[in-house]
Specification:
Layout: H1 3-17, H2 31-43, E1 49-50, H3 51-58, H4 62-74, E2 78-83, E3 86-94, H5 96-148
Antiparallel strand pairs: 1-3, 2-3
C-alpha cells in the first residue's frame, strides 16, 4: 500500500476508534470534561491547584481556563478552595461527585476495552500494544525536539 494511502487509512482507523466510549451516554461528565478533570488531578497529584497551573498545562489563556472551571463548578464537578497558607489564591480540586462519576465511566470503558481485547486475542493484543508504545515513544521524542527549538 502506498504511504499516502497508509496515512489515510490510519487516520480513518483512528477516527473510527474514537467511537470507543461507554455505551451509556447518560453520564454527567462528557469526554472533554473527563479529560480536563483527569488533567487537573494529574497536574496536582490529587492536591488542589491554581487556575494558572491549569491554564499553563492545557495551553489556555487564564480567562479561558477560568471559564471552563466556572462551568465545571456550576455542575458540581470541581470545588474552589482557599488555603490557609495562601489566602490570596484560589485553588481548584475535583469534587467527590466527579470522582465517583469518573470511576463509573472508567469501569464501563475498561469492560468495553476488555471485550475488544478478548476479541483480538492475546497475540494481536500484544502486537497492538507494542506498536502503540512505539508510536507514543516517537511522538514523545518529536515533542521534545519541537520544544527545544
Amino acid at each position: 500500500m502506498p504511504s499516502k494511502d497508509r496515512a489515510r487509512k490510519f487516520r480513518e482507523m483512528m477516527y473510527m476508534a474514537r467511537r470507543l466510549k461507554p455505551r451509556d451516554d447518560c453520564h454527567e461528565i462528557k469526554h472533554q470534561d473527563m479529560m480536563f478533570l483527569n488533567g487537573i488531578k494529574k497536574i496536582g497529584n490529587g492536591e488542589p491547584i491554581k487556575i494558572s497551573q491549569i491554564a499553563k498545562k492545557f495551553r489556555f489563556s487564564a480567562p479561558a481556563a477560568t471559564q471552563v472551571v466556572r462551568k465545571l463548578e456550576e455542575r458540581g464537578l470541581v470545588e474552589r478552595i482557599i488555603r490557609d497558607d495562601d489566602r490570596r489564591s484560589v485553588y481548584i480540586q475535583v469534587s467527590e461527585l466527579a470522582n465517583v462519576e469518573i470511576r463509573k465511566i472508567e469501569t464501563q470503558m475498561n469492560q468495553r476495552l476488555n471485550a475488544i481485547l478478548d476479541y483480538l486475542g492475546d497475540e494481536d493484543t500484544d502486537e497492538l500494544l507494542r506498536i502503540m508504545e512505539k508510536m507514543v515513544k516517537y511522538l514523545d521524542e518529536e515533542e521534545k525536539e519541537r520544544n527545544c527549538k
